[in-house]
């Protein structure tokens, strides 16, 4: 099976007054049709910029300086804006973190849905409205006809995110990039939205890149997970493998810091130190200053190891036998 | 909505009352019209007769009470100079001023909005910088000087446009209008542009700032991510949000346009209220001054009300009465 999206050595930089910030520094991954890839990392790791870079949505002073993004074999990097526009929302849709900020406050929900239909399909307004109505019904919004005439502020946070999901699925895209779509919601709504998303993606055979800092969400949702640190993917593999047997010291620290039931009464583990400034990345492995296992050799560029099929780790440490076996 | 209107009308009535007291007392403090109106050669008896006929022999409070009584009958007193109803005099001149003020507002939007949008979309381009430089010039040049230069260039050197008066007028609904005839329109252009210049600069700056904010906002990024055409992103998603502050400021500025019209009307010999009030002040024609100020206050109050209502139409989040479904 060919991947729906194939990213190779993607580099996005922000030219700031203080220097060049390498927000995405050579990222590579594949997304298979209908699969969910979890892209995890802490704030500033470049996971969101990676998501935006995929569809050319990086605002100045940021720009993609290298690499390749192929969607169904077609190169997207360097594609003219008019062709990217035709792709956005149609083939690759996005869901943002806070729908309070992303839905336009002065336009009716119906308007914002209908315009999305009309931007890509030459249908009548009535038909577009009908499709919008059906899409709202699908994500579990009651009396969708009335809700089309409501404004975003008349919806609750969870409802707004359902609207965003409905908009994302309007054109049955082959890929949805979801940038922390549940972060702004409370936990019960979070799980509802997650299962909604999961069901729809499965139904429509839509691949999803789920960007999150929350490992527990990704563990229940993703097929594969990629852990980002300082603009790079440091570990990548099937979600069950990565979460149970992380190889990279950063991934190990990240997973150890998730509170679990068996840790009751114990201090939470944490990774010492702070993520490095993207303006002044240390030579070699960017995690080296915080790594408990750092050695002199870490000052050189860390090698990429592939200990098992579908697994990747960017570290000099020898891969433990149990994984290789 | 009804209770909102009732509340606002009550407030307006109070403002009018307070203003009438202020104006009355203020006008008393400026000087005695008797010194200006009556020739120094007049005999003491003549003098006494005139003072009594104008009611100037009575106390301030007596004069105010009889003024208020008159107002309820629609009578603001007779002009000392013209010997006719002061309010009639003003209402007779008002259409000319309104015509000038409205033309100036329309010009400021027609010219300022597109230029401001361009400057906001291309802030670092030569065009964007030129527009901003131009708006600074528009801000800093005094109205009277610009008016003189306009007359010098377009009326004296080039001879394209007339420099004084309203030109040929057409009577519609009992009121004379200049903008309905070609000659009247030619007479209107220079004074309207002169009056608009400051507002054009204001609109440019407001629009540019709003545009830059809007273009950096999440809802615009989301609109792009949905694959909307750039035209729709700017003209609908960004513009509709910019209009909210713009309408507020322009609405409130409308009052000041009428006030500024005094200078422009004087320079272009435009027979409006501005010219009338300047003449009335110089001869201390109290009834005309009081009536003029009351009309202006009434206009400000009305404009504010209209702005509030328009605002609520543009921004669904502040629908008056707070009725949200």
Describe the structure in brief.
Chain A has 325 residues and is of the alpha/beta class. Helices cover 32% and strands 23% of the residues of chain A.
Fold and architecture overview:
Chain A has 325 residues and is of the alpha/beta class. Chain A has a domain at 5-32 and 42-80 and 212-324: 3-Layer(aba) Sandwich (Rossmann fold). Chain A has helices spanning 47-54, 81-87, 99-102, 109-120, 125-138, 144-147, 157-169, 187-204, 215-221, 239-244, 249-256, 321-324; strands at 5-16, 19-31, 36-40, 62-71, 74-75, 92-95, 175-179, 207-212, 224-229, 232-238, 304-305, 312-314. In chain A, strands 6-7-8-3-9-10-12-11 form an eight-stranded mixed β-sheet, sandwiched between helices. A four-stranded antiparallel β-sheet of chain A has the order 2-1-4-5. In chain A, α4 packs across α5. Chain B has twelve helices and two strands. Chain B has helices at residues 2-30, 33-37, 44-54, 60-72, 86-121, 126-140, 143-157, 182-215, 218-225, 230-267, 273-282, 286-314, and strands at residues 170-172, 175-177. Chain B has a two-stranded antiparallel ribbon. Chain B is globular, with a radius of gyration of 24 Å. The A-B interface holds A 55, 57, 59, 81, 85-90, 93-94, 96, 98, 101-108, 115-116, 119-120, 146, 150-151, 153-154, 167 and B 216-219, 221-230, 232, 236-237, 240-241, 244, 314-317, 324-325.
N- to C-terminal separation of chain B?
A: 15 Å
Q: What is the overall silhouette of chain B?
A: globular
CATH level-1 class of the domain at 5-32 and 42-80 and 212-324 in chain A: Alpha Beta
The average pLDDT of chain B is 83
**Order of the strands making up the biggest sheet of chain B:** 1-2
CATH superfamily of the domain at 5-32 and 42-80 and 212-324 in chain A: P-loop containing nucleotide triphosphate hydrolases
Q: Termini of chain A, distance in Å? A: 26 Å
Which pair has the most extensive contact? A-B, 32 and 26 residues
Rg of chain A computed from alpha carbons, rounded to a whole number of angstroms: 21 Å
Structural class of chain B: mainly alpha
By oligomeric state, this entry counts as: heterodimer
Question: Which runs of chain A of at least 5 residues are low in confidence (pLDDT < 50)?
Answer: 321-325
Helix count of chain A equals: 12
- Estimate what percentage of residues of chain A fall within beta strands: 15-25%
**Largest beta-sheet characterization of chain A:** 8 strands, mixed
β-strand number of chain B: 2
How would you describe the shape of chain A? globular
The share of residues in extended strands of chain B comes to under 5%
Helix content of chain A: 25-40%
């Amino acid at each position: 099976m060919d991947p729906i999206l194939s990213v190779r050595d993607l580099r996005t930089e922000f030219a700031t007054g203080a220097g060049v910030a390498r927000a995405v520094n050579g990222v590579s991954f594949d997304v298979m049709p209908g699969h969910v890839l979890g892209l995890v990392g802490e704030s500033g790791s470049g996971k969101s910029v990676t998501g935006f870079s995929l569809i050319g949505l990086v605002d100045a002073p940021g720009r993609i300086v290298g690499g390749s993004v192929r969607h169904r074999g077609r190169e997207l990097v360097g594609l003219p804006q008019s062709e990217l526009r035709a792709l956005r929302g149609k083939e690759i849709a996005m869901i943002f973190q806070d729908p309070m900020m992303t839905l336009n406050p002065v336009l009716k929900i119906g308007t914002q849905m209908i315009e999305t239909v009309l931007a890509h399909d030459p249908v009548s307004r009535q038909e577009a409205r009908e499709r919008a109505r059906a899409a709202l019904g699908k994500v579990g919004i009651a009396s969708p006809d009335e809700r089309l005439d409501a404004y975003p502020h008349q919806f609750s946070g969870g409802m707004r995110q359902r609207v965003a999901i409905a908009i994302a699925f309007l054109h049955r895209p082959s890929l949805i990039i979801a940038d922390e779509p549940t972060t702004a919601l409370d936990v019960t709504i979070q799980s509802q939205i997650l299962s909604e998303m999961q069901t729809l993606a499965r139904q429509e055979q839509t691949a999803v890149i789920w960007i999150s800092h929350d490992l527990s969400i990704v563990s229940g949702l993703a097929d594969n997970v990629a852990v980002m640190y300082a603009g790079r993917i440091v570990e990548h593999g099937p979600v069950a493998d990565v979460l149970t047997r992380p190889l990279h010291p950063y991934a190990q620290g990240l997973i150890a810091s998730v509170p679990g039931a068996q840790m009751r009464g114990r201090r939470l583990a944490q990774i010492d130190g702070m993520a490095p400034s993207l303006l002044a990345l240390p030579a070699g492995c960017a995690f080296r200053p915080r790594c408990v296992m750092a050695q002199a050799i870490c000052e050189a560029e860390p090698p990429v190891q592939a200990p098992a099929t579908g697994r990747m780790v960017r570290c000099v440490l020898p891969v433990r036998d149990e994984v290789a076996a | 909505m009804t209770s909102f209107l009732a509340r606002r009308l009550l407030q307006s009535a109070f403002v009018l009352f307070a203003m009438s007291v202020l104006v009355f007392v203020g006008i008393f403090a400026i000087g005695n019209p008797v010194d200006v109106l009556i020739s120094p050669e007049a005999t003491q008896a003549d003098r006494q007769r005139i003072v009594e006929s104008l009611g100037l022999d009575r106390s301030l409070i007596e004069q105010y009470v009889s003024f208020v009584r008159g107002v309820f009958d629609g009578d603001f007193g007779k002009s000392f100079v013209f010997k006719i109803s002061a309010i009639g005099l003003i209402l007779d001149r008002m259409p000319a001023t309104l015509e000038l003020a409205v033309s100036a507002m329309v010009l400021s939007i027609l010219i300022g909005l597109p230029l401001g949008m361009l400057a906001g979309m291309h802030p670092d381009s030569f065009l964007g910088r030129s527009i901003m430089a131009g708006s600074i010039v528009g801000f800093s040049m005094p109205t009277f000087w610009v008016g003189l230069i306009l007359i010098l260039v377009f009326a004296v050197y080039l001879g394209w446009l007339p420099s004084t008066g309203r030109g040929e007028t057409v009577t519609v609904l009992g009121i004379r209008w200049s903008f309905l005839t070609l000659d009247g329109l030619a007479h209107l252009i220079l004074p309207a542009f002169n009056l608009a210049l400051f507002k054009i600069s204001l609109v440019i700056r407001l629009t540019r700032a709003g545009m830059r904010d809007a273009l950096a906002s999440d809802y615009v990024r989301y609109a792009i991510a949905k694959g909307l055409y750039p035209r729709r992103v700017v003209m609908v998603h960004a513009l509709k949000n910019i209009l909210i502050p713009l309408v507020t400021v322009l609405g409130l500025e409308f009052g000041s346009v009428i006030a500024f019209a005094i200078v422009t009307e004087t320079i272009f010999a435009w027979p409006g209220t501005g010219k009338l009030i300047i003449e009335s002040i110089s001869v201390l024609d109290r009834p005309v001054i009081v009536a003029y100020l009351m009309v202006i206050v009434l206009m400000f109050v009305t404009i504010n009300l209209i702005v509030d209502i328009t605002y609520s139409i543009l921004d669904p989040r502040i629908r008056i009465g707070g009725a949200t479904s």
